């Protein structure tokens, strides 16, 4: 196992949202740009276009070129050291969780775009994107919203509260950060710095805690 860099201990951030087009990739780009110089691996988990026709095997593709036309290419452009696309059906999600475990054990800082993965990992930070103008709510968004530490929105906080109320949820005491028209998230950087600074334990210990600690029965999300 590779030695962990003590200056950059392993960390895991999960970014989810209630539907497509809410700004998840843009939020990840913002985080990566403000943390340039740190060794972040950005991972997109998708249930679409599986590796085999029956969808039985995850396919992991690593991006090698910066591109504004793909999510992984955008990650690289924003400053990610590595960018991975994991095409993973629900029944094989545990294998992608194991991949995250290996990355964390090797000292990577990992930021993941996914709702489903929260059923299998213990993240340092979970962010949830809300677009009040979009009514579609994926079934996979419920658990991610429940576990979110903060909300990011393209609308005003009052609209976010109304959107969540429509789903039987609330903002509670979680901060709500607004994304502007330039896809910048005001105030998130300071909050995230403080949140990450509170993380405790050795990098290897945290890697063991992040993934694989849940019982096998929870390997397939509902």
Descriptive overview:
The protein has 222 residues and is of the alpha/beta class. It has a single domain, classed as Rossmann fold. It contains seven helices and eight strands, in the order βαββαβαββαβαβαα. An eight-stranded mixed beta sheet has the order 3-4-2-5-1-6-7-8, sandwiched between helices. Helix 5 links the parallel strand 7 and strand 8 (176-178). The longest helix is centred in the middle third of the chain and has 13 residues, at 93-105. The chain is globular. It starts with 10 loop residues before the first strand and ends in a 12-residue tail after the last helix. Mean pLDDT is 83; it is low at 1-5 and 200-222.
Largest sheet, strands/sense/barrel: 8 strands, mixed
Number of helices: 7
Query: What assembly state would you assign to the polypeptide chains in this entry?
Result: single chain
Q: What level of helicity do the residues show?
A: 25-40%
Q: Would you tell me which CATH topology applies?
A: Rossmann fold
CATH architecture verdict: 3-Layer(aba) Sandwich
Tally of strands: 8
Short description, anyone?
The chain is α/β, with parallel strands linked by helices. It has helices at 24-34, 71-78, 93-105, 141-147, 157-165, 188-197, 203-210; strands at residues 11-17, 40-46, 59-62, 82-87, 109-113, 125-130, 150-153, 176-178. The protein has one domain: Rossmann fold, CATH 3.40.50.
